[in-house]
Each structure stands twice: as C-alpha cells, then as structure tokens.
Write a structure and sequence with these properties.
- The protein is of the alpha/beta class.
- It is 33% helix and 25% strand.
- The protein has six helices and seven strands, in the order ββαβααββαβααβ.
- Strands 1-2-7-6-3-5-4 form a seven-stranded mixed sheet, sandwiched between helices.
- α2 crosses α3 and α4 runs parallel beside α6.
- It is globular, with a radius of gyration of 16 Å.
C-alpha cells in the first residue's frame, strides 16, 4: 500500500475512498464507523459537480439531507451530520456518516483561483464533527475520518493550512485523505 504519514493525517495514494469505506463499515469485528466530510457551497441548492456529486451517487442521503436545509440553515459554519449507511451485519454497529460542511462561498472555475473557502467556517465545522464523534458515536465503535483530496487540495485554498486544521482538530481520531 502506498501511503505517506505526515503527523496525524495519512495520505492514501492507491485505494478508492468509497471502496475502503464500504470495506471498513462491513468489516464486522475488524471494521469501524467512518465519517466523510463534504464541503458545501452555501449559494447552491444542490450538488452540481465535483466530489459532492460523486458522493451523492454513492450515498444519496448526503444530497437528500442537504436539499432539506433551508436558506437560513445554509450559513457559514453550519454542519449537517447524517447517517448514510450501516453495516450489513446488524450485530455490529458500524455506520457511515456524512458531514455536509457549509464553508464554501460561490463557485470555482479553472480560470478563477480566488479562495472561495472560509477557513473560520471550516474550522467551526471540523470542531462540530469532532464533538459529534466524541459524544454521539458509541465508544465501542471506533470512528475514522475518510475524505477525498478535494477537502485538502480545494481550489484556491492553502492545502498545508487545511491539513493543519485537520491535525489540530482530530488529535485522537485517524484522518485519511484519499488522493486518487
């Protein structure tokens, strides 16, 4: 496996995020719960493209939950955490959670490299995710953050700073960023 561990964030260069998530959640006694953070645009009523649209294909609950939000709820710093799947074997309580993080303002393009990510809102959302894991995920079920490179290498954002936010926020939770 090609991975590089830098501080507390692991970068996986080989495996598909969605394949790994399904394997972990259905891994029975060797598995665990997984939370997938998703950057959401507060100005968009749906997931139009990029990682969010791919996420909605695998886990439609992510888009369904987002569509339920009113314009008042789609404010910077709001984080909607919802369950998107469970372990096939009901003996185990492993779950897939999606965190729709409201921290993007406006749309990106290949010609416009402006920073549309709000770091304060992202930090607030990551703190809410950490609180959720520490207080709402059963202690007997380990939970891991699995995300796509889109979270760290977001267009116009400083990838090092976002990685530092992840490290500082999740000091007792594994964070894996899938680069493929």
């Amino acid at each position: 496996m090609k991975t590089a561990i830098k501080n507390r964030v692991t970068y996986d260069k080989t495996h598909s995020l969605f394949d790994v998530v399904n394997t972990l959640v259905n891994g029975e006694h060797l598995g665990h719960s997984v939370l997938i953070p998703n950057i959401c645009n507060i100005k968009s009523p749906n997931f139009s493209n990029g990682f969010a649209s791919t996420l909605a294909q695998y886990f439609p609950a992510a888009l369904d939950g987002y569509k339920v939000l009113s314009n008042n709820e789609r404010k910077l710093g709001y984080c909607q955490i919802l369950q998107a799947g469970t372990c096939k074997n009901k003996q185990y309580s492993h779950k897939i959670y999606i965190a729709n993080m409201m921290c993007q303002i406006g749309f990106n393009s290949k010609t416009n490299r402006n920073r549309n990510i709000n770091y304060a809102a992202m930090a607030a959302c990551l703190n809410k995710i950490n609180h959720f894991i520490n207080n709402h995920v059963p202690k007997e079920s380990t939970c891991e953050i699995r995300t796509h490179k889109y979270l760290v290498n977001y267009i116009g954002a400083d990838s090092r700073f976002v990685a530092y936010l992840l490290e500082d926020t999740f000091n007792s939770t594994n964070v894996v960023v899938h680069l493929n």
